[in-house]
Model the fold of this input.
Amino acid sequence: MKNKVLFFDLDDTLYPSTSGLWDAIRDRIDRFMSEKMHIPPDEISNLRQHLFRTYGTTLRGLQAMFNINPQVYLDYVHDLPLNDYISPNPDDRKALISLPQRKFIFTNSDIHHALRVLDVLNLSDCFDGIIDILKIMPNCKPQLESFKIALAAAGNPDPHSCVLIDDMLWNLSAAHEIGFRTIHIANSASGTDGADAHITTLVELPDILPSLFISQT
Done:
């Protein structure tokens, strides 16, 4: 188990989806589309959902359709007081520190947002690196090329020795297709496509991980 590599999503994975932070980010996305792009308010929700489903992220869709500046967008949508939404969980930290595997953040957010989140959660020293949206551009999860870039950034481990922990089932399904073991983290199990296991908190990881590789021992 020590030689395995763990890839963690960031938002709604390292902190509970009930925190309200992602809802606040989504509101900032809507404001960006209205205030900066002058898209009519009554068109924004449907357009955002279309872009997310079609391109993997709203940002990727806005780049493809409107050629927006990604850093301007990312700075705007993540300009939030994180302490109002998330806080450290000592049990999560203890669980992550107990894992001997190399651990990477693999996120469709940017590194600045990731560093801020890790700092607020007191998890900055728990990871070996951050693979963010800027590193994998013009791709994003769940696109295959994004996983290839992530693997290269982690030193090219065999995908079959890797685990993705993510709240989005379509990201897990894509990772599963190329050999990753996959863990869905969510308040409830909303389907199992692409997931080898389901957890509700990071505290469960030390117990669930060994069972994913029984067939390799």
